[in-house]
Amino acid sequence: MQSHEVSLAIESIPGCAEQTVASQKANALTQAINDAIFTIPAIGQPWPKQGGVNAGLIRGENGKPDYYLIIATDDAGKTDRIEYGGYESETEGANSEFDGLANTTALLKSGTDHPAASWAAGVIIEGHNDFYLPARREQSLMYANCPELFNDVWHWSSTQYSAGNAWVQDFEDGYQDVDSKDCRYAARAVRRYYPLTNSTI
Predict the structure, then answer these.
(1) CA 84/CA 36 separation, integer angstroms
(2) Neighbours of 40 (CB within 10 A)
């Protein structure tokens, strides 16, 4: 595991209650960071209090920050059969191959029923309610690093291909393909953890 110590220092000014309160808050924040946030488990290992397993670090697109992808392992974060939804309706902003969060957000805002995205966004594990349906390239990482977490079946990604089709991931052999949005496949929810310091990948 990687462990990084963080230190926040605020000068105490005699007679200044506001500064004392700020110092106490800074100390509490420092302790919280040192105790939890920067304890990063190895790839494929459970991440305590983060809702799942560490699937690895993903480079942010177009200047966005890098993030760790966390795969839900609780039963609440898995479903065996669900439709992508929105058949014959192409959703603007849901075609990203890398950004499943953006895809999921676009699908939810489209005004059309998208069961898989709605299900993923509704998952709550260990107090975290920021889960989403992964994009196809996020699924590539999931298969490469954590195939043992999945049944050998097709899973929906959030990546739309056309008005009628979306991308699916086979966790038996790693193959990806497109299929009709009204088909029923498995799905797995994921979330992100953003390190406070930017990575160098």
Answers:
(1) 35
(2) 18
What are 89's two structure tokens? 């309706």
**Which runs of consecutive H residues, i.e. helices, occur in the chain?**
17-32, 100-109, 115-121, 136-145
Q: Tell me the pLDDT tens digit for each residue of 132-149.
A: 999 999 999 999 999 999
pTM for the model: 0.81
Distance CA 116, CA 118 (A): 5
> Which candidate, 62, 59, 38, 66, places its Cα nearest to that of 50?
38
Strand extents, DSSP E, 110-181: 154-160, 165-170, 176-180
Domain boundaries in the chain?
A: 1-39, 46-193
What is the Cα 122 distance to its own chain's centre?
Answer: 13
Residues with Cβ within 8 Å of 166's Cβ and at least 6 positions away in sequence, in order, are 84, 156, 157, 158, 159, 160, 178, 179, 181
